[in-house]
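In the design runs reported in the main text, the only information available to the sequence generator was the tokenized backbone. The following block is the verbatim input for one such run; it is reproduced so that readers can re-run the procedure and compare outputs position by position.
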């Protein structure tokens, strides 16, 4: 069995939960992090010395013994996809897999960082304390990223090509967060078409119906 540590409001936990649903994995999720706390305990730090979520324990037997522990959300998505969805979420053809990997790295190094300030200011900061200049800089950076997605989705149905892969999970979670922020945006018809298809996936419904908090 798979155990997922992390609160579902975390965008990084959402990636892992969505992936587990796509793969029809029997799993248990435990709320830790944020208001739930629990990430600074010795027991949790033994699993992830960074004290961050998500963390998975995979291969739990009936006695609760753990075979494998892993942290870092995109690494977890890659691992689960490779172990339980080879040729499905995890492309076996080298070039297709490299393309999916490329977009997953882009999500974590460029796309999500571009929207951090807008998220923190608009969701986590009281209105009278918000920094409009920080919000605008973040908005512009994130729009440059969404323009990149818009362009690739104009040429193909999914981020890494003709079919749904692990790259759509991580980029889809990031896009859900961006679109959930209260601000005006230019029309992105291909991005919106892609997100509508993702929301229709049974495995995504728990995650992509959540408000951004």
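Verbatim output:
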């Amino acid at each position: 069995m798979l155990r997922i540590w992390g609160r579902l409001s975390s965008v990084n936990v959402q990636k892992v939960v969505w992936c587990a649903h796509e793969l029809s994995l029997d799993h248990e999720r435990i709320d830790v992090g944020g208001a739930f706390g629990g990430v600074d305990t010795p027991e949790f730090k033994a699993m992830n010395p960074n004290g961050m979520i998500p963390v998975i324990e995979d291969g739990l037997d009936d006695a609760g013994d753990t075979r494998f522990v892993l942290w870092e959300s995109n690494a977890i998505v890659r691992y689960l996809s490779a172990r339980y969805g080879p040729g499905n979420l995890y492309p076996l053809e080298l070039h297709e897999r490299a393309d999916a990997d490329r977009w997953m790295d882009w999500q974590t190094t460029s796309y999500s960082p571009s929207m951090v300030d807008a998220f923190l200011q608009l969701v986590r900061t009281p209105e009278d304390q918000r920094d409009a200049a920080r919000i605008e800089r973040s908005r512009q950076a994130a729009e440059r990223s969404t323009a990149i997605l818009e362009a690739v989705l104009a040429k193909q149905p999914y981020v890494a090509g003709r079919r749904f892969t692990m790259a759509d999970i991580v980029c889809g979670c990031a896009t859900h967060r961006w679109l959930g922020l209260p601000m005006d945006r230019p029309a992105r018809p291909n991005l919106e078409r892609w997100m509508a298809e993702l929301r229709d996936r049974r495995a995504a419904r728990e995650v992509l119906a959540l408000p951004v908090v």
